[in-house]
């Protein structure tokens, strides 16, 4: 007989509530429990007292969990996620870490390598943003990922047939356009799987990227010493085939099936205006993406030119492969524990890791003369990537877009776009600096970007202190300002008009995008000045 018993799972229970308990239904909807991604039908009912919203949600979630949770299915999906990340990134390890080396073998100058890497990164970022938005709008995530990954493998594998510059540029651009939407949508599905399984976090799936990347970077470096750089394209073909088979079983359909349960919204297709306005969903969105952009810039200065720098110091491609393998080996424990560290300290402290690590790495590279000592510097890569990446993906999904579940694919695409845009700028700028003053001084000039990143992280830290770790206090502060304005308006009305001339006027103070249940403020104003107020 309490209001909390108004949670119902069907028409029969609803009828019993209305007839036997005499409750009056005032709203019915389907809500999404963000913590566990369950869809729970509920009703708000009214009797003699207020509705206990907390009890309604709690009972509904318990019923859904017992009905839908399947431990064996989720165990298989977690195993599939690990296999997908291992093979997809093993295939990518045949391309990304050696792009600058391949271009150098094809007689591109340093400024040409920088310009080429910039063009490739821009293609990646733009295509990722466009295709993830299309997937969210038309619910075609699986088709886009499978088609894009197939084209990625075909384009880069075809480089084996010709060495011409125009041929290299064309296929590399097409390959990066195809690669753009793959990782954002993979990450989005993986987060969904992890939330359903309720046992592991995202980073424990992502650590298998470090295993696959490190293993095949080491193997590829050794094979290049023995057979030449074109062996990379044959390795890509083999690993790409296994990756494509695994991706075909990945549950991309869950992303749009979940939205089909949402009867509250009339539109089944997301409008482009919704996709375009997602950056306004949280006050921390733009400051966070600014930090990601600078991290991407600094990532490119090392990712694009460190291998060439080691070769100029008379290092071998085997040493380059060992260098990448060492970095990935250290990444594994950081990937494993990164989400727990994030839950304990928050994103505002996680972002200081890349600042510290990039400062140490760039200073060390600029004074490096023995190429073998690079193996002592590369473990700091874990702070710039493994400790940052997993929490950042989780932060975008669970915090910045908490109130916009249908835009999470777009949000992941924007996170990747910010990172790859920074990389695009870094490849070009660093390439021109290296062409003018050399690679050693280029690393020293990059310390200016570290100082800029430090200032951006301090700004993000300041905002989290004022608005909260999730930015939710922004709307509370906005509501306080609206209440102050309403009090001022009431005082003005009392001074200008007699009490008899005033009528109640409701002033809404909740923003359309915050979805907070803040009631309007009611003041007593003159009827003639209602519109003005």
Strand order of the largest sheet: 1-2
Count helical runs.
Answer: 24
C-alpha termini separation? 43 Å
What is the overall shape?
Answer: globular
Structural class: mainly alpha
Strand content: 5-15%
Helix percentage: 55-70%
* Overall mean confidence score, pLDDT: 77
Radius of gyration: 27 Å
Element pattern in H and E: HEEHHHHHHHHHHHHHHHHHHHHHHHEE
Sequence stretches where pLDDT stays below 50 over 5 or more residues:
1-69, 260-268, 512-517
**Main sheet attributes: strand count, strand direction, barrel closure:** 2 strands, antiparallel
Strand segment count: 4
Main attributes of the structure:
single chain, two-stranded antiparallel ribbon, two-stranded antiparallel sheet, 533 residues, disordered N terminus, mainly alpha, 6% strand, 24 helices
């Amino acid at each position: 007989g309490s209001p909390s018993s108004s949670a119902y799972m069907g028409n029969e229970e609803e009828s019993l509530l209305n007839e036997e308990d005499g409750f009056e239904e005032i709203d019915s909807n389907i809500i999404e429990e963000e913590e566990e991604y369950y869809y729970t039908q509920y009703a708000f009912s009214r009797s003699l007292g207020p509705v206990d919203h907390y009890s309604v949600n709690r009972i509904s979630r318990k019923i859904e969990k017992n009905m839908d949770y399947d431990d064996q299915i989720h165990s298989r999906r977690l195993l599939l996620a690990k296999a997908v990340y291992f093979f997809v990134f093993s295939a990518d390890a045949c391309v990304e870490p050696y792009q600058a080396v391949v271009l150098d073998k094809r007689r591109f100058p340093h400024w040409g390598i920088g310009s080429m890497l910039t063009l490739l990164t821009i293609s990646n970022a733009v295509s990722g943003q466009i295709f993830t938005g299309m997937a969210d709008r038309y619910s075609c995530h699986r088709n886009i990922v499978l088609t894009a990954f197939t084209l990625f493998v075909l384009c880069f594998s075809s480089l084996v047939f010709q060495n011409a510059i125009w041929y290299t540029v064309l296929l590399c651009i097409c390959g990066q356009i195809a690669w753009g939407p793959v990782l954002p949508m993979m990450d989005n599905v993986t987060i969904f799987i992890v939330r359903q399984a309720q046992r592991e976090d995202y980073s424990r799936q992502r650590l298998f990227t470090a295993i696959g990347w490190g293993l095949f970077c080491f193997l590829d470096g050794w094979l290049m010493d023995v057979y030449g750089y074109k062996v990379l394209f044959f390795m890509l073909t083999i690993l790409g085939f296994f990756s494509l088979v695994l991706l075909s079983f990945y549950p991309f359909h869950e992303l749009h099936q979940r939205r089909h349960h949402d009867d509250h919204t009339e539109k089944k297709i997301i409008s482009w205006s919704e996709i375009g306005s997602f950056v306004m969903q949280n006050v921390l969105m733009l400051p966070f993406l600014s930090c990601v952009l600078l991290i991407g810039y600094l990532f490119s200065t090392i990712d694009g030119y460190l291998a060439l720098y080691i070769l100029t110091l008379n290092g071998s491609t085997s040493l380059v492969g060992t260098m990448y393998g060492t970095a990935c080996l250290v990444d594994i424990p950081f990937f494993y524990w990164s989400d727990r560290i994030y839950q304990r300290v928050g994103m505002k402290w996680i972002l200081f890791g890349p600042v510290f690590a990039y400062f140490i790495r760039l200073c060390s590279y600029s004074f490096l003369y023995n190429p073998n000592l690079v193996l002592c510097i590369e473990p700091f890569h874990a702070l710039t990537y493994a400790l940052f990446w997993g929490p950042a993906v989780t932060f975008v999904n669970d915090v910045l877009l908490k109130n916009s579940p249908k835009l999470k694919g777009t949000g992941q695409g924007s996170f990747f776009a910010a990172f790859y845009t920074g990389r695009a700028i870094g490849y070009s700028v660093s390439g021109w600096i290296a062409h003018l003053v050399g690679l050693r001084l280029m690393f020293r000039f990059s310390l200016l970007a570290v100082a800029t990143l430090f200032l951006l992280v301090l700004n993000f830290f300041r905002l989290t202190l004022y608005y909260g770790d999730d930015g939710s206090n922004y709307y509370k502060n906005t509501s306080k300002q609206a209440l102050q304005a309403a009090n001022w308006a009431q005082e003005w009305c009392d001074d200008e008009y007699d009490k008899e001339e005033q009528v109640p006027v409701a002033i809404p103070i909740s923003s359309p995008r915050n979805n907070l249940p803040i009631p309007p403020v009611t003041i007593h104003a003159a009827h003639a000045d209602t519109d003005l107020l």
